Amino acid sequence: MTQGKRICSLAAIICCVVLSLVCHGALAAESKQVMLLHSFGRDFKPWSEYARSIREELNRQSPWPLDITEHSLVTARFGDEDPEIPFVEYLRAIFAKRPLDVIVSIGAPAAAFVQKHRQQLFANTPMVFTAVDQRRVQYSNLTANDAVVAVQINYLAAVENILQVLPDTKDVLVVVGTSPIEKFWKEAIEKDLEPLANRVKISWTDQLSFDALLKSASTLPPHSAIFWELMIVDAAGVVHEGDTALTRLHAVTSAPIFSYDESFFGRGIVGGPLLLVADTSRQTAAITLRVLGGDRPGEVRSPPVPFASPVFDWREVQRWGISERRLPAESKIYFRDPSLWDQYRWQIALIVSVILLQTALIVGLLSEHRRRRIAEIESLRRMTELAHLNRVATAGELSASIAHEVKQPLAAMVAQSGAALRWLAQGTPNLNEARLALEKIKIAGDRAGQIVENLRSMFRKEPNARRTLDVNILIENVLALTAHEIRKHNISVQSAFSDAVELKTLGDQAQLEQVFLNLVMNAIEAMSASQAGARVLQVKTSVSDDAVLITVADSGPGINAKSIHKIFDAFYSTKPAGMGMGLSICRSIVESHGGRLWASPADRGMIFHVSLPVTG
User: Fold this and answer.
1) Assigned CATH class of 31-151
2) Distance from the first to the final alpha carbon of the chain
């Protein structure tokens, strides 16, 4: 039983689907007959734009296929009613076997024609009157089969817009022709503009041929404007279709052109509050489809379509020198030349981002460079301070050697001065011997002064200017300064100085003397701690590959091979009471002179190597 119910349900669903498809196919096959009736012809502005837009909206919104035909009421151009009867018979004959579902009349002449001949034409066919001002609709003649999509033309607002954007305007030329509808609108405009009679002069073109109109428009007085109403038939009886008349006028005019209909926007008018084609077309299509769907036309109400917010053509605004500040606040501007930002927004944003990123990187690099430079200066200052402290500490260790070095010339000076006094105290003074003694005193004094100056330059805090130095003399000074310590610890010195002319370098004497003084004192301390074997200090100088090479070797206990690479690190020391700064300072000094300092183990003790660039 349950299975039988399921089969019945499935069959019912299938039947519904089939019926739906059949109904949809029948609906699709049922074509709706729609006629668009033009007031003057398919190419007359503005109605041609309304017709095009209404057709597009109908096809877009309609759930049915539409068969849309278009016909034109040619008699509206001249007001001759005699041809209307044959035209009615013509339409009735065409649709005798194909009854229309709805007629859409576009413009006031088409609406008047339909209302006049409704009984003879299509008494029961629904009508939709559109693109017609509410003043042109004969509401008393409307039937239950008539719907209206009217527009509301406000001529006073349109001309007040001219006076707002061009407040100096004194004359307004209204372009209007001689067809019946144009005559109607001339009277309507005159009536609407009565409030402006004392402010602006209104002129008309209905007595001019179009060529005469062009000539007049090209020589308008200053502070004039042109208001484009219609130009269907001029005073010479010439019919004007499409954009030709407005285009020719725009080419020669000496004053800006204004209008109220969007159909002319972008083709030479400045702009202002306009009737938008799309607004009317959407309402017309919506009402027409409701009528096709079964709604009674007389019950479908639609309020008149008013002016939309003002729009302006930027090209015309620029051409006539209209200040953008004079435009209404809610205005929209079209055809403005796009700025570089509008055209290349993403490219500019990318370029600016890259530039900002590069700027940030450059600023960061400069800041980092500045901080590094400051750090280097601070490091050099502290290194100089440490070097000075190191020299002062070394001076304490060498106090005995310094005293001995100074004592020797002083003792010689005392001895020679005594000899000189004795030679002068004789009955016959021996002036030659006294002169020789005084010369020796001078030599000893110079020697003492040189020792003091060397010590002073070596241990003073201020940096010395770099100059060309003889490396051999530099080493000899250091050995002379440490001679007392060398003798005290029973150390023999083996020196091998190269006599090459190139054995000169550019440097700070005090700093380089400190380097070699540290190396020699380290060697002395290392050997003094050793109890076995002879104590030998070897100092050699040579030239190799444009570099001065100095080696200082000792016969001390040496250093573990694994620790050699650490001895130049700050605060690393192999001495129990050492600070670990001496060799670090020495390496910094040598490297600041463009050289190298390194160590290597020997059979006994250590060898320290110093390489300094040769200078001419």
Assistant:
1) alpha beta
2) 121
